Amino acid sequence: MSKISVTEAAKLLGVTTKTLYRWEQEGKLVPERTKGGHRRYDVAQVLGLEHGERKTIAYGRVSSHDQKADLERQVQVLEAFCGSHGWTFEVIRDLGSGMNYRKKGLVRLLKLISTGQVERLVVTHKDRLLRFGAELVFTLCENFGTEVVIINRTEDSSFEEDLAKDVLEIITVFSTRLYGSRSRKNKALMDQLKDVAESLDDD
Hints:
By secondary structure, this protein is an alpha/beta fold. It has helices at 6-13, 17-26, 43-51, 68-84, 104-114, 134-143, 159-179, 184-202; strands at 3-4, 32-33, 39-42, 55-62, 89-95, 118-123, 147-150.
């Protein structure tokens, strides 16, 4: 978890160091001490003070509109799990490929985490965040003091289906570029790759 000095914490909050010392006496901030006796504050604690009470975020995602029923099942599981633990929570729903880093819900989630507003992130499966790169989100959570809760750590049952859709998305991007070259060989290659990806989706 990231630690910052008194001066850095004061600058981050836009207050004086004297204010921080007063908050420490009031119990609002609890610094750690270095071997040399210097105060060090958790970034998450400081940002949490700035933004108020931190919250639990439950995140659900599917790749396409035809998986709406799956998204609803995810949300039901997330709500039941968070409710059973007595957590006050908010659900963020997302629609888009697990390889798309610009999804509206994901962008909002990352912003909330990086501003210290998330105490806990709950997902049904690891790959609901991202197909590749979920560890980066987990590292961000660690740095900002956000606990990560993965309800089901086994392989997601829809892995093959989502992976096929992700492959099709990549092929679409590359085929657009290759078709521009008007190469029959390129077009034939991309058509073959699409057929393979679609066959995986149908299995």
